[in-house]
Design goal:
The chain is of the alpha/beta class. The chain has helices at residues 45-50, 55-61, 93-109, 127-140, 166-191, 199-209, 222-228, 231-237, 279-282, 290-304, 350-361, 377-383, 395-408, 419-423, 441-450, 487-496, and strands at residues 13-17, 26-33, 38-41, 71-73, 80-85, 116-121, 155-161, 216-220, 245-251, 259-270, 310-320, 332-334, 340-342, 368-373, 388-392, 412-414, 432-433, 458-463, 469-470, 481-482.
Length: 499
């Protein structure tokens, strides 16, 4: 599956075993109980026998804690033990995902030039917990390969000690690997520099990762976009020498009844256009295509898992650059379908390119439309860097998305779209303005997007501006750089829509 720019998205080999093998580099065990009296979970019997003193006592003396994600390296008695806190409450899939992510991130950091074999011995038996452990481990072990270097896997193999067997075991592994690899592909795309990932090369990447699948791919270049009336994408992409693209990917399994449309923002670099960003605000803007990365990677995973739901995915790709051919504040743009838009701010370009795709998607007669974008700084101000915003056509639709996000372990918070925010988009020279007041900016952006979706169509908007890119220290299974946020939620959403 990995393509030219996603060579680092190769997942480790994963197997399920009844007991920890002896020829392994690290064994991850759990810590439960209390801080004063920690209890170790999953210690192999031969390791326990080789210890000169009770391992729980050694672990306590070395600072092992039951707090979720707390990592402690224990002395080597045969295999090197890594004790990770599993929490003091009932173990949830997300809690386990984070604990395994912390443990594997610590181990990967110690790998050096080696490729390690790690065992997860945490007494997990339920399929949801086995899957979560694998996902957390794979995502936590991820490291981005420097441009020009050979990809390296610090973790070569992961073995999970479990009593789970048969079809549930195979399905848990298949689910975890397909979803994890999709997240890693999204991370690789997001981390790629904008001189390597731009609309044309991004479209080529999509062709690469869909080879050998039944996914149908259509790419519209600048000539086709102009001919067919995609005024929004053409306006935003008009200031760059790198021409825009619209990518359409379709997964249409036989017998599927529900039709899900996904739309992703694919601004491969955002300078702000003529409303130029300050230098500090521009440096990480290679990540402004995270929405497109999420919907495309998720669609590949949905197809790989054979989920019985019809999915049509659009990725609006453009580079927002200042030049003599850039679109201007106060320009009136004629969008796909004929709606006219007064451009207020050329740095609010994401909603412009996505509106074209949303308008086009209505011809597909979807049951549900979900768009994903690093859309507004306002959403980050409201919810911080780790929680994404969710706005929707109705509460029932929001609940479907929130349920999928909870299952996936990703954080979203619902925001409203009040009527007074909608009225703020009224224009004196066009059908509507692209932006309203600075106040409530995330809700205004959502109100603009909803204008391009049919009144009777269920719709949700995911503003992932905060959690899509982590420019601080890594935590849990989240690395520094691109995170792949929303991929797991979209896959779970598709799973929930199966007949």
């Amino acid at each position: 599956m990995p393509s030219t720019l996603t060579a680092g998205a190769i997942v480790p080999t994963v197997d399920l075993v009844a007991r920890a093998p002896k020829d392994t580099d690290y064994v991850v065990v759990g810590v439960t109980g209390s801080s004063e009296q920690p209890t170790l979970v999953g210690v192999p019997s031969e390791v326990d026998k080789a210890s000169p003193a009770p391992l729980a006592q050694i672990a306590r003396d070395l600072g092992a804690k039951p707090e979720a994600g707390k990592v402690c390296i224990l002395p080597r008695f045969g295999s090197q033990l890594v004790a990770v806190g599993l929490g003091i409450d009932e173990l949830t899939p997300e809690q386990l995902r984070r604990s395994c992510g912390n443990a594997l991130r610590e181990i990967a950091g110690r790998a050096g030039d080696s490729s390690l074999h790690v065992v997860l011995s945490l007494e997990t038996a339920e399929s949801e917990l086995v899957r979560a452990a694998i996902e957390g481990a794979v995502l936590g072990a991820y490291t981005f390969t420097k441009v020009g270097s050979q990809p390296k896997r610090p973790i070569e193999k992961i073995s999970v000690v479990t009593s789970l067997g048969g079809a549930p075991a195979k399905q848990a592994v298949a689910d975890a690997l397909a979803i994890s690899q999709a997240v890693l592909v999204a991370r690789e795309w997001i981390n790629a520099p904008a001189n390597l990932l731009y609309p044309e090369s991004f479209a080529d990447e999509v062709r690469q990762i869909t080879k050998g699948t039944k996914l149908e791919v259509e790419v519209l270049d600048e000539k086709q976009l102009a001919k067919e009336g995609y005024g929004g994408i053409m306006a935003v992409g008009g200031g760059s020498e790198r021409a825009p693209r619209l990518v359409r990917v379709e997964h249409k399994p036989r017998g599927a009844k529900n039709h899900l449309v996904l739309v992703g923002k694919g601004i491969t670099f955002d300078t702000g256009g003529l409303n130029l960003k300050p230098a500090d605000g521009m440096y990480t803007m290679k990540c402004d295509m995270s929405g497109a990365a999420a919907v495309l990677a998720a669609t590949r995973a949905i197809a790989e898992l054979g989920l019985s739901v019809h999915v049509t995915t659009y990725a609006s790709m453009a580079e927002n650059m200042p030049s003599g051919s850039s679109y201007r504040p106060s320009d009136v743009i004629t969008m796909y379908g004929g709606t006219t838009v007064e451009n207020v701010n050329s740095d609010a370009e994401g909603r412009i390119v996505m509106a074209d795709a949303l308008a086009r998607s209505q011809a597909d007669k979807p049951d549900l439309v979900v768009d994903v974008a690093t859309l507004t700084g306002a959403c980050m101000v409201a919810l911080g860097n780790r929680i994404a915003g969710l706005m929707s056509s109705d509460d029932a639709t929001a609940d479907i998305l929130l349920d999928a996000a909870e299952t996936a372990g990703e954080d979203f918070w619902q925001l409203p779209i009040p009527e007074h925010i909608r009225k703020g988009l009224e224009s004196k020279v066009a059908d509507l303005k692209s932006s309203g007041s600075r106040m409530g900016g995330a809700m205004a952006a959502a109100a603009f997007l909803q204008h391009f979706v049919g009144e009777d169509t269920a719709w949700a908007h995911l503003d992932i501006a905060g959690p899509a890119f982590n420019d601080e220290a890594p935590y849990d299974y989240v690395p520094t750089g691109g995170t792949g946020h929303a991929v797991r939620t979209l896959v779970e959403l598709a799973r929930s829509l199966q007949d």
